[in-house]
Amino acid sequence: MLLHIFPYFLFFNLCLSSGCVGILKSELDEESDVQTAVTVNVSLTLEEIQFVSATNMEYEVTLLLHQRWLDPRLDNNLCTQQKAVNGQIWRPKITLVKGCLKICNNVDDTQFWRGFGSKGNVLLSEKVTIRSSCTRDFRRYPFDIQICELKFGSYVFPVDEIELNWDRNPIKILSRTDLDTFELTNVTTYSEIDVRPSGNFRILAVQFFVKRYFTNYVMSIIISGNLLVTLSYASFWINRERINFRLTMCLSNIAFLIYLHVHSCSNTLINALDLFFVTCLIFLIFSLFGNCLVSYLLSMIHVVDKGNRNHQRSIILVHRWIKILYPVIYLSSFLLYSYSVIY
């Protein structure tokens, strides 16, 4: 008989020494105590970030969500570990407020729980994969900087029950900052209060600033557009008797510019690169009509008014002014465009 009772006696002594009775007593007296807000410090470890669609500015990020708080009912003992295994530990239930959380197949494999110290310090780390979208401000494209924002909060506990704060070191980056067509340049955090009919809730937000790599656009599009405008301007220096060659050059430049714009357009929104194409197209069309006008006037002078040298000189003077004003106006427009887009 004593042999059957002895194991239960040992287990009861073990619970007394490990503090199970204190935990049960605190849980029973929990409702009678004055409830205060639990402070939860949050930090993120960025493991991987990549763009799913650069056109729609959709990205996917894998990170560790670290949550630290103080629970005096817990201790680094056997009973606390058993409660953690059984899922009986209180959690702040932080979820995504902005962004789409991809569901994991096995939630237990993506969580890490640890209680440490004698004062009930708790650490909960969850590995999550999130898909969200960045801003789509293409006014300075391809020199644009976009903001990718994530927001975390709780739909269960308002600020009078949980106070969410960023940790001293809120963000730790383990992934590469080179994101194919973008570069991760800066990460900032802030907090705000979300007022809802059910109460006020604390929201924690993190912003990833990504800058587009523009070298490829400059080499393949902007330099090509400038070369086409230069070739159209060179047509004014060709002998006016070769009008067919001059017109063919202008028309070819216009066709190639349109082809370049169609195959380089990556979004449907109006952006700074579209403004550059429109500017180049205006100057190409101007060179086309300028060549036609000058050739027509000179041919009329040669046929109808052959003896009027003053009229012939005035037409030649207009032709010279076109050759002077064309590059001056274009260079001024291009410098103004570059300054407004880059700076």
UniProtKB/TrEMBL annotation:
Q: Where does this polypeptide localize?
A: Cell membrane; Membrane
Alphabetized InterPro entries for the sequence: GABAA/Glycine_rcpt (IPR006028), Neur_chan_lig-bd (IPR006202), Neur_chan_lig-bd_sf (IPR036734), Neur_channel (IPR006201), Neuro-gated_channel_TM_sf (IPR036719), Neuro_actylchol_rec (IPR038050)
Q: Which GO terms describe its cellular component?
A: plasma membrane
Q: Which GO terms describe its molecular function?
A: extracellular ligand-gated monoatomic ion channel activity; transmembrane signaling receptor activity
What stretches pass through the bilayer? 217-238, 245-263, 275-303, 324-342
Q: Which UniProt keywords apply?
A: Cell membrane, Ion channel, Ion transport, Membrane, Signal, Transmembrane, Transmembrane helix, Transport
Instruction: Enumerate the Pfam families for this protein.
Output: Neur_chan_LBD (PF02931)
The Neurotransmitter-gated ion-channel ligand-binding domain is annotated at: 34-194
Membrane topology value: Multi-pass membrane protein
> Which positions carry the signal peptide feature in this UniProt record?
1-22
* Domain of life the protein comes from: Eukaryota
Q: Which SUPFAM superfamilies match?
A: Neurotransmitter-gated ion-channel transmembrane pore (SSF90112), Nicotinic receptor ligand binding domain-like (SSF63712)
Principal location: membrane
Q: What is this protein called?
A: Neurotransmitter-gated ion-channel ligand-binding domain-containing protein
State the organism of origin: Photinus pyralis
